[in-house]
Amino acid sequence: MRNYKAALKKEMPFFLMMPALLWQLLFFYIPIFLVIILSVLKTTPSGAIRFTLLHYKQFFAWPYFAIIGRSLVLATVTSFLSLICCYPVAYFISFYAKRFKNILLFCLVLPFFTSLLIQVYAWFFLLEKEGIINNFLLFIGLIREPLTLLNNNFSIYLVMLYCYLPFMIFPIYTIMEKINPLFNEASSDLGASPWQTFLRITFPLSFPGIKTGLFLVFIPAFGEFVIPGLMGGNKQFYVGSLIVHYFLAAQNEYAGAAFTTISCIVLVGATILFHFLLKRFLFEAKE
To answer: 128-155 as b/e, with b when 16 or more CB fall inside 10 Å?
Structure first.
């Protein structure tokens, strides 16, 4: 009986993981598999379904490589801008906020209780030519005519940064919160400056949170289509917007499935490369 209880306790983590694994199977792996199958099929004029790779052939052209590259740049820049902006915030909340931690975290989360569309459209009132920002700059005399802040890359990256901030702040904060403050005190007692303590202790120990945050931003940002479409004025195609175009506008699900598969392969490859670069950077940082 005792051995049975020990074995059950040992296997308990597996059983607790089953709902998450089932969720991934039903809503991630099976849909991806169906998309891959759809990408290699075609319907003949007679209504028969045949196997083909022609859907992939059309995407081996420069315009589609440019779209994928544009999305990679968007995801990469958004990730590192988020890191630059969020790391000081997470650092301050972890080590200096003290009793105000919960209040500050609540203030960070509060804007994201609303819909993404509402958040994006709210930026129109800030960035349009007669918006709050232009009116304020005109009022204080800093500019003489309204700036063009909408329908360009500036507005896309700004709103992308805003919307993905929580994905970066909370992983870093969660790791920093677990850092033993005695490490910093010991470093100070041994004669290290605050900057040396940060570089040698705080930053390397917080690197798992940085890595998690970068991936949490990079992966969804690669396929983002709402923000680039609304804030960029639909002037340029991105991976997400082209997939939406094929499935919803062009009604060409076969081409859409093929481009989705290619984009997923590129994303997986970029993520693996990203992982090894971060791992190498962590190794150098520890040295």
So the answer is: beebebbeeeeeeeeeeeeeebbbebeb
Token readout for 53 is 């790779």
pLDDT digits (tens, 9 = 90+) for 61-90: 999 999 999 999 999 999 999 999 999 999
Contact 221, 79 (CB under 8 A): yes
CA atoms within 13 A on the CB side of 114: 10
Q: Which residue has the tokens 């296997």?
A: 11
Q: Are 32 and 264 a contacting pair, CB within 8 Å?
A: yes
Write 214-217 long-range contacts (CB < 8 A, 24+).
214/79, 214/80, 214/83, 214/168, 214/274, 214/278, 215/271, 215/274, 216/167, 216/168, 216/171, 217/75, 217/78, 217/79, 217/82, 217/164, 217/167, 217/168
- Look at the block and give the residue holding tokens 């597996």: 14
Cβ 203 vs Cβ 91: under 8 Å: no
Asked if residues 244 and 259 have their Cβ atoms less than 8 Å apart, the reply is no
Instruction: Please give the structure tokens belonging to residue 237.
Output: 């195609």
- What pLDDT does residue 49 have? 81
* Residue 66 to residues 238, 241, 271, Cα–Cα distance (Å): 9, 14, 18
Q: What is the pLDDT of residues 86-126, one digit of tens each?
A: 999 999 998 888 888 888 888 888 888 888 888 888 898 88
pTM to 2 decimals? 0.87
Return the number of other C-beta atoms located less than 10 Å from residue 281's C-beta: 13
Domains of the chain (ranges plus CATH)? 50-286 (1.10.3720.10)
The separation between the first and the last C-alpha atoms of the chain, rounded to the nearest angstrom, is 50
pLDDT at 201 over 80: yes
- pLDDT given for residue 283 in this prediction: 58
- From residue 147, how far is each of 57, 130, 143, 236 by CA, in Å? 43, 9, 8, 21
